[in-house]
């Protein structure tokens, strides 16, 4: 009402916003202080509120005492005494309209032109100034001839526009070289944050594999390539090795059996029973078995640090209360630095998709169900979970009986080379087939459950597929550690395990390509050509993310048995990025129920850290501490366990240099005891738990602050109503 508007207009905080002359006078005084002082004013002189009050300035609050034009002229005079950057910043921060700022800029430009014309003539130079001019002239004459010769070729790039265009071309070329810069923006704008989370997760896996591959390459692979072992008769390359990993690749840097147990630059005899070293040992001995074990340990340690950092950062980024995200997205989402038409269109699509996600999220929160509906939903979910666990158990039992049947058939009869290599592909084929078919069965269960929230549906699908894959991998790891692997007597069992993991990775990649071909491309053609509909298949985030976690788990399990397996995984991830991106853009549509994946990246990293990484670390730790390595090949041949190589190295180090016996004394209680590893694991778990609790506390504080802001708005409405009632009572 008009009475409330009069009350608001008479408030001291609204005086500056209403009186233009007061604003100009305030900035005139501020500019004068800025001109007199070289530093910022102290904190006590600054205003405490967002809108400064006139009580801190010696201004006349009566606008009739001084005209507006005089105040403008006074402000322009003070602005002329400032530097151009300070002048532009002052005009930018003034709370006045654009028309008023335009008037002030015009007055500034009119008064600056005579000053520029007056100061455009050369002032008399000092002796130092004349010497600088002479040096510049001499250098100009020396460079003029080569520049004139190259002028026709450099003329398109010598102008500011040409240099700017060249820089833009180079920067765009660098961006296109990265597979996650422009493509990720395009995916996020067209399909939303749910599909984008898959590609961000793929980018994280690529980074982790790069660090592991670099460590293994620098510490072991390069040195073993420079100092190769004794020559072994190599089998001819037929091309089938790309699928089986056997044959030509068996005696190569790819597998464990190729690496030797020598010590470079060390005259000591490499015997596990003891060694005799001379008094003067070489300065830099390099123990390849110890380097092999250390590189695996360092790569796992670096991966653990990166995973913990990624989990903590994801938790920090996901902190917040999303009740006010819609208003923030509406008023603050646009980036005014975007000027190109294609970028503007991409940003529009991105903001529209995010608004759809937020609206669907708020709509799902507003829906309520009765007790009968919730009871029926609970019974359906319980039955669906029982069926899912039953299907997973049946798959594990099928793989177990199939493994036993394969070993019996392998021992019963011999076979040729081609038939034997074909048999090697049967187990990965069966496991990959189960991993490809079971997610579709779980999707049918999800359709029966009819989950309202797409986020809950994705979480349920991830948990069910994860249980299936982890159970199958647990069974395979048990078979590998019990030496129940198809392997010839001439090869290391570690090499056979590495070949098995390589075949699983290759077969998983092939089934991913087939699923992309038949599940997306062929299905789109059927929908468009046969059914004559514009509907396209949707991108299954849960299944694709679980495929990435499964492939990365295979890589971590095989680092000890195949040091170059991270390089194979990097190549696979790069191919998957471009294949999935192309198929997504050509064959898929946006989600029918847009949903916001604000915490999805955190869930993906957490699943990668806890079931996948910790499981692989436990498997390799047990292998290093308890399993006997091969006696005829590999860097740890002849030892009881792989970890015994560290004890042997400490013994040799103590004999070669008696001055460092303290190292053996410190090593025995700290590193030779498994309690240290247990306490380190407990400490890491406690740190992650406390970080999660701190993040949850921050999230609660942020939600309470949002609630406090909402309550303060209600307080203002309450005060305005009270003021309105008091104002009406006084005027009766």
Automatic annotation (TrEMBL):
GO terms for cellular component: plasma membrane. InterPro entries: TMC, TMC_dom. It comes from the Eukaryota. The chain crosses the membrane at residues 205-227, 290-309, 379-403, 423-446, 458-481, 548-579, 599-625, 671-692. Residues 492-598 form the TMC domain. Signal peptide: none annotated. It is found in: Membrane. Keywords: Membrane, Transmembrane, Transmembrane helix. It is a multi-pass membrane protein. Its main location: membrane. GO terms for molecular function: mechanosensitive monoatomic ion channel activity. Belongs to the TMC family. PANTHER family: TRANSMEMBRANE CHANNEL-LIKE PROTEIN 6, TRANSMEMBRANE CHANNEL-RELATED. This is Transmembrane channel-like protein. It comes from Certhia brachydactyla.
């Amino acid at each position: 009402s008009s009475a409330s508007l009069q009350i608001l207009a008479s408030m001291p905080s609204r005086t500056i916003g209403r009186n233009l002359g007061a604003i100009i006078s305030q900035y005139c005084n501020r500019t004068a202080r800025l001109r007199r002082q070289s530093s910022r004013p102290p904190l006590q002189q600054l205003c405490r509120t967002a809108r400064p009050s006139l009580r801190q300035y010696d201004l006349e609050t009566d606008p009739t005492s001084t005209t507006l034009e005089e105040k403008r002229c006074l402000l322009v005079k003070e602005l002329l005494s400032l530097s151009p950057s300070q002048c532009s910043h002052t005009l930018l921060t003034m709370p006045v309209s654009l028309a008023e700022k335009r008037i002030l800029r015009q007055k500034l430009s009119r008064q600056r032109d005579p000053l520029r014309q007056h100061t455009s003539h050369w002032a008399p130079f000092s002796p130092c100034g004349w010497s600088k001019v002479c040096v510049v002239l001499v250098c100009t004459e020396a460079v003029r001839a080569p520049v004139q010769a190259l002028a026709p070729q450099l003329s398109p790039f010598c102008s500011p526009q040409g240099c700017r265009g060249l820089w833009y071309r180079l920067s765009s070329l660098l961006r296109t070289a990265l597979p996650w810069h422009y493509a990720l923006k395009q995916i996020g704008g067209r399909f939303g944050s749910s599909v984008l989370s898959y590609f961000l997760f793929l980018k994280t896996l690529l980074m982790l594999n790069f660090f592991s591959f670099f460590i293994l390459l620098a510490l072991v692979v390069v040195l073993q390539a420079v100092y190769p072992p004794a020559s072994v008769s190599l089998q001819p390359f037929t091309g089938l090795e790309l699928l089986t990993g056997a044959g030509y690749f068996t005696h190569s840097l790819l597998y464990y059996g190729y690496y030797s147990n020598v010590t470079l630059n060390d005259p000591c005899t490499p015997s596990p029973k003891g060694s005799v070293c001379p008094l003067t040992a070489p300065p830099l001995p390099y123990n390849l078995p110890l380097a092999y074990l250390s590189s695996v340990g360092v790569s796992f340690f670096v991966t653990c640090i990166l995973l913990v950092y990624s989990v903590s950062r994801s938790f920090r980024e996901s902190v917040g209360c999303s009740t006010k995200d819609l208003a923030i997205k509406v008023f603050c989402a646009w980036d005014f630095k975007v000027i190109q038409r294609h970028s503007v269109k991409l940003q529009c699509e991105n903001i529209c998709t995010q608004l759809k996600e937020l609206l669907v999220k708020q709509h799902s929160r507003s829906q309520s169900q009765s007790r009968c509906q919730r009871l029926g939903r609970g019974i359906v979910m319980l039955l669906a979970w029982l069926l899912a666990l039953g299907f997973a158990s049946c798959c594990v039992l099928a793989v177990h009986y199939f493994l036993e049947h394969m070993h019996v058939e392998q021992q019963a009869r011999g076979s040729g080379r081609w038939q034997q290599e074909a048999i090697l592909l049967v187990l990965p084929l069966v496991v990959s087939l189960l991993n490809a078919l079971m997610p579709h069965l779980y999707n049918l269960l999800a359709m029966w459950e009819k989950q309202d929230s797409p986020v809950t549906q994705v979480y349920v699908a991830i948990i069910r597929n994860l249980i299936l894959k982890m159970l199958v991998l647990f069974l395979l790891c048990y078979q590998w550690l019990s030496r129940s692997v198809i392997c010839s007597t001439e090869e290391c069992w570690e090499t056979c395990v590495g070949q098995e993991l390589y075949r699983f990775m290759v077969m998983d990649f092939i089934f991913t390509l087939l699923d992309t071909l038949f599940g997306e491309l062929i299905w789109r053609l059927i929908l468009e050509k046969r059914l004559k509909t514009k509907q396209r298949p949707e991108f299954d985030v849960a299944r694709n993310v679980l495929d990435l976690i499964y492939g990365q788990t295979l890589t971590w399990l095989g680092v000890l048995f195949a040091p170059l397996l991270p390089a194979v995984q990097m190549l696979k991830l790069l191919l998957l990025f471009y294949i999935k991106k192309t198929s997504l853009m050509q064959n898929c549509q946006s989600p029918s129920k847009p949903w916001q994946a604000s915490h999805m990246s955190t869930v993906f990293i957490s699943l990668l850290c806890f079931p996948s990484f910790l499981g692989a670390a436990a498997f390799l730790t047990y292998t290093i501490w308890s399993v006997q390595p091969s006696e005829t090949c590999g860097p740890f041949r002849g030892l009881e366990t792989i970890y015994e190589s560290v004890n042997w190295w400490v013994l040799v180090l103590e004999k070669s240099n008696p001055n460092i016996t303290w190292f053996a004394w410190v090593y025995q209680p700290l590193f030779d005891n498994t309690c240290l590893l247990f306490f380190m694991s407990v400490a890491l778990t406690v740190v992650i738990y406390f970080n999660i609790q701190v993040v949850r506390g921050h999230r609660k504080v942020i939600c309470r602050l949002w609630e406090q802001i909402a309550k303060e708005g209600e307080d203002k409405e309450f005060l305005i109503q009270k003021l309105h009632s008091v104002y009406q009572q006084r005027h009766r």
